[in-house]
Amino acid sequence: MKQKVLIMRCNEYDPDRITGIIKEGMEELNVKPSGRILLKPNVVIAHPEIFPHAFTRKEFLDGAIEATKNKAENVKEISVGERSGITIPTRYNFKNAGYPEVIKKHKIKTYYFDEDRQVPVKIKGKEVLRNTLFVPKPIARADFLINLPKFKAHPWCRLTLSLKNFIGIQDDRHRLVDHNQFLEHKIADLQAVIQPQFIAIDAITAGQKMMLTPTPFSMGAIVMGTNSCAVDTVGCHMVNVDPTGMLTGLGVTSAASATTTMVAGRPLASEDKL
After folding, report:
1. Pairwise CA distance, residues 112 & 61, whole Å
2. Tell me: the pLDDT tens digits for 19-59?
3. Burial class of residue 209 in the structure, from the number of CB atoms within 10 Å of its CB (0-12 exposed, 13-18 middle, 19+ buried)
4. Which backbone phi and psi does 41 adopt, to 5 degrees?
5. Is residue 157 in some structural domain?
6. Could you list the residue range(s) of the whole structural domain that residue 68 is in?
7. Pairing mode, strands 144-148 and 198-208
8. 3-class DSSP state for residue 218?
9. What confidence tens digit (pLDDT) does each residue in 104-115 have?
10. CB crowding 212-224: b at 16 or more within 10 Å, else e
11. In a domain, 272, yes or no
12. Three-state secondary-structure class, residue 248
């Protein structure tokens, strides 16, 4: 099955510019959000001075919400939801990230997954670690999931992109289960709970070397698609990482091998160093 991935130039965190690019991406990919729409950023940790490059920026979230509102149909609810890093209250990190004022501006709902009821979801597969996973109720009942990862490095999985961002859909007690040498397998299993219908990666300023305190790297791009394997494959190639190794580690080789990726949009110039 052929999947299209868009790489669009965006050099700065201008919410209006980001809105326009994401709207264009949704149109190009024929994405029409509807029903209960949940936007899931990466806010593993946030602080404007100590951890300025570890999370999806508020300007990016602002643009994504505005684009979603513009393109959505038959809306029941638009919300933002996340579970930050283990032991750190998500509410605290949202405040540090500047999210509350953005969410208030758009008059949408917030779900702090560590404060929400966790419900069981059955998953199937010969190689799954567990037949039942617990996720927050807003995830289980979402009709349309929009994944908004931050493009950055990860010490175990090499990169945090669309697939890895799913680790933030569980609260601490369930997130800790298999959060060990089986982490990559666990991330693969989480894909069976729900699939994002649209992905927009904040790659305007990417993060190198570390996960929580990454060295900023000006990539100047927004990467969009509707298939996590395809989007992550393109993301790997953007920084010269072998996607086969990463996707194999995440247990999604079968999905990746069945996916033909077509890259479109406004590519980065040849002189750009990635």
Report:
1. 16
2. 999 999 999 999 999 999 999 999 999 998 899 999 999 99
3. exposed
4. -80, 180
5. yes
6. 11-226
7. parallel
8. strand
9. 999 999 999 999
10. bebeebebbbbbb
11. no
12. helix
Predicted pLDDT of residue 89: 96
* Total count of domains within the chain: 1
- pLDDT tens, position by position, 226-252: 999 999 999 999 988 888 765 554 445
CA atoms within 13 A on the CB side of 254: 5
Cα distance between residue 90 and residue 82, in whole Å: 7
In a domain, 103, yes or no: yes
Task: Give the residue from 158, 163, 160 showing the smallest Cα distance to 150.
Answer: 160
3-state secondary structure of 186: helix
What is the model's pTM? 0.90
CATH number for the domain including 29? 3.40.50.11440
Per-10-residue mean pLDDT of the chain, 274 residues long, equals: 92 98 97 98 93 94 98 98 93 97 98 96 90 95 98 74 89 77 82 96 88 81 95 91 65 46 56 38
Please give the Cα distance from 34 to 106 (Å, whole number): 17
pLDDT score of 199: 98
**Strands (DSSP E) found in 89-246:** 109-112, 118-122, 132-136, 144-148, 150-154, 158-160, 198-208, 215-225
d(CA 41, CA 146): 9
Tokens representing 224? 């969009």
51 found inside a domain? yes
In the block, which residue shows the tokens 């509102």? Answer: 69
